[in-house]
Specification:
Layout: H1 2-30, E1 52-53, E2 60-61, E3 66-68, E4 80-86, E5 109-119, E6 124-136, E7 139-147, E8 154-156, E9 166-173, E10 179-186, H2 189-196, E11 197-198, E12 201-202, H3 209-212, E13 215-218, E14 221-224, H4 225-231, H5 255-267, H6 292-295, H7 322-327, H8 346-358
Antiparallel strand pairs: 1-2, 3-4, 4-5, 5-6, 6-7, 7-8, 9-10, 11-12, 13-14
Helix pairs in contact: 5-8
């Protein structure tokens, strides 16, 4: 009897063990992972990477594809953005300085999707483009993907007859209810480099510790973004005393901090040493703009518009400030930023105007 019972028990355990193994294998088979061969990228289709699971247009991130959002966002004709980071297994980025891009390892991919959720008619959602920056051993490269109208795929356009970029006519509704129509600019590789160039090499803009040192609402809870990267094995460590930018839309923050954060994300990548606009008189990175002269207060413009616009910032007088004029213009010969927008960012211009009106010093 004991022998029969023991035999039955062994058979039961064997069957249970097999079923357990089958369950584990099933989970592994259903799990999807990013497809990335550094020697083969950029791929012709965005879907080939498998950065996202399910319907591509839902942008549902795959395993280890980590969403992120800088404290303030670069203005791109009111486009919304969904950003992600993916890195090869076992590799980590390192911290250099608050205002320097994280030092990412070879194989890192930064993913930025541009979309609207109020496309007219009907307030529909439409993804326009996805931009990748891929870290190869030779440095960062750009890969621009243009979405089809069916929102089922995005095709690589970088390196084709797209060398001059293109435009896509769209109509969308702003938060205030106004409907805007514009030729949304999809940049060429040369145009991408114009803004992302430092020391004549391409470099990311927004992924600096000062911009990521804020919380993000992840599917499993709210967490500091830098800590999330550490927890995911994507970042070695970071200091606890980072001097950080803020969301320029947050009216609970001081006006000058909001403006400096706005200028940092929208303008500082060009207005710095060894970048596109390093010959100009201003330096607009967040770490430098504690000095009003760096923003241009009372500084004579290196390219005056006319006699009434001699200074970059004229205290108390937006109408006589070159920066206000350039941010308010859509003329390609006058507007700032030079690239990335075709329409005026009303909220950004208003923020600058408010700040200029608080200045009361007299210029020499």
């Amino acid at each position: 009897m004991k022998k029969i019972y023991l035999l039955f028990l062994l058979c039961f355990l064997a069957i249970y063990s097999c079923k357990s193994d089958e369950k584990i294998e099933s989970v592994e088979a259903e799990s999807s992972f990013v497809n990335f061969n550094i020697d083969a990228v950029p791929y012709a289709k965005l879907s080939t990477y498998a950065f996202f699971t399910g319907d591509l247009k839902n942008l549902n991130p795959n395993t280890k594809v980590i969403p992120y959002e800088p404290a303030s966002s670069l203005f791109t004709d009111y486009a919304l953005k969904k950003r992600f980071i993916w890195m090869p297994n076992g590799l980590k980025a390192s911290y250099d300085a608050d205002d320097k891009t994280l030092n990412f390892p070879v194989g890192t991919v930064l993913i930025k999707n541009f979309y609207y959720n109020t496309i007219q008619p009907g307030n529909t959602t439409k993804i326009i483009e996805t931009r990748l920056m891929i870290r190869k051993s030779s440095g960062w490269i750009f890969a621009e993907y243009l979405w089809n109208d069916a929102q089922t795929e995005a095709e690589l356009v970088t390196g084709t007859n797209f060398s001059s970029g293109s435009s896509k006519n769209i109509s969308f509704k702003k938060d205030n209810g106004n409907v805007m129509t514009t030729d949304y600019r999809i940049p060429s590789e040369t145009e991408c480099l114009a803004c992302h160039k430092l020391d004549n090499k391409p470099i990311p803009i927004g992924v600096k510790p000062q911009n990521l040192n804020i919380t993000y609402n992840y599917p499993n809870g709210i967490k500091n973004q830098l800590q999330k990267l550490v927890d995911e094995g994507y970042l070695q460590s970071y200091p606890s005393n980072i001097v950080s930018t803020v969301n320029y839309k947050d009216t609970s923050k001081p006006l000058d901090i909001r403006l400096r954060s706005y200028l940092d994300i929208n303008c500082a990548h060009c207005h710095q040493e060894n970048a596109r606009c390093d010959y100009r008189a201003i330096r607009l990175s967040f770490s430098q703009t504690t000095a009003l002269s760096k923003i241009g207060v009372c500084v004579m413009a290196d390219e005056p518009i006319d006699a009434s616009l001699e200074r970059i910032i004229t205290p108390g007088n937006p109408a006589k400030s070159v920066m206000h004029f350039r941010l308010s213009s859509t003329d390609e010969s006058n507007r700032m930023p030079l690239l990335g927008r075709t329409i005026v960012h009303d909220e950004g211009v208003d923020l600058l105007k408010q700040w200029i009106n608080t200045l009361n010093q007299n210029c020499p």
